[in-house]
Amino acid sequence: MRQGAPSLQRSRWRFCLFTLLYLYQGLVAGFALTALANHFAAAGASTAEVGRHLAVVGLPWVLQPLLWGPLVDRAAPHRMGPRRAWLVLSLLGAQASLAGLLLLGARPSLAAVSIVLGLHSLAASLADTATDRLIAGSVPADELGRTSAATRAGFVTGSAAGTALFAWILAADGVPAASGALLALTTPLALAASLVREAPEDALVSFRWRTAPRAPGRGRVLDTIAFARRLLAAFRTRDAALLLALCFAVDLGLALFQVPFAVALVQVHGWDAGALSRLQAALALLGGTLGAAGIGAAVDRIGPGRALRALLLACAAAFGAAGLLIAAGLEAAMGPVILGLASVVPALLYVALLPTVLLASRAGRASATQFQIYMAAMNLGDVAGAALAGPLAAAVAPTLVALGVAGLFLVCARAAPGR
């Protein structure tokens, strides 16, 4: 039945769907986390204000496993597919949230924009949970590296294109015009992504359950308790605890350095916000496309654990070099090189980290929640780093921050799985 319909049973449609969904995420991230942050930094927002914006937008991603993991793991059967039904619904909510940016007026405050984008993150994090569950349930183990590379390439391509485009629109026409362009670009992606079914026989659009949801009662309570016990048991092992700590530490270290360094380039060294956004976009594109393809193939060949350890060591070397350049007084002149060291190598790291986390969480009925807890640890590290970046930058020299991050990556490399 409908054998020719696009579905996750065929490799090419898996790559198409997951790449489109991460391209969508990247466009929003390029707008919200880079172009918009640089725009308001150029308008006089402090490092602390920019950090609060990043924290508000990132908070729903920290709460993601509590909000959406159990919902997707325990989804009742649906004519559209149990995970795809949530994906389509969440994309609709995400687009409605982006439309809310158009209601903020001609010169919205950073705080108002942060709140609306935080609402978008609520819906987008549900879409991401459903996407990750679809990946875990449909991608063979020997395809995880290439799938990770495809999703990373989709994200950074969207982020790079979004950063460059929205930086230009923000400078020329302001936040409302950039918000309208974001909505126009992401809506076709959301619609296209909704066309790939979980199975060929699934309905394209339906509001009917295949079976009636179970009524609340003692059975549901006991099922919830059993689900929580399985989930806790999955994180009691030493390897799971170390991987959870590693996920947190990676994004914490990156945010502690990247946020104040970008603000300093604009406010202290006189860089143009648009030029900074375009450089960040180009660096992200370099690491996330050509670099990601090579790393993805290597992950499938040598295993994600060995690739992850090697990239953690490379990150330590990159931040060590950045710290030495800053110590030599070359922060302004060598800004592009330092940005490259602090962004390109870490971008490649995620290509190996995603398969490692998927393999650690794909077994059992709580796989979506397990995976999202690892991802939430990364987002929590990012939010914590963004929130702490301002106070740390005021108290610690950037050289010491860079060298401290290098040391953190060395510790992570020592703790990382080796296979």
TrEMBL record:
Cellular compartment(s): Membrane
SUPFAM superfamilies, alphabetized: MFS general substrate transporter
GO cellular component terms, semicolon-separated: membrane
Keywords of this entry: Membrane, Transmembrane, Transmembrane helix, Transport
Ranges that cross the membrane: 21-41, 53-72, 84-104, 110-128, 149-171, 177-196, 240-259, 279-299, 311-330, 336-359, 371-389, 395-416
Domain of life: Bacteria
Keyword tRNA processing belongs to the record: no
The keyword Transcription is annotated on this UniProt entry: no
Pfam families in the cross-refs: MFS_1
InterPro entries linked to this entry: AmpG_permease/AT-1 (IPR004752), MFS (IPR011701), MFS_trans_sf (IPR036259)
Topology within the bilayer: Multi-pass membrane protein
Entry GO MF terms: transmembrane transporter activity
Family label: Belongs to the major facilitator superfamily.
Name listed for the protein in its UniProt record: MFS transporter
The organism of origin for this protein: Methylobacterium tarhaniae
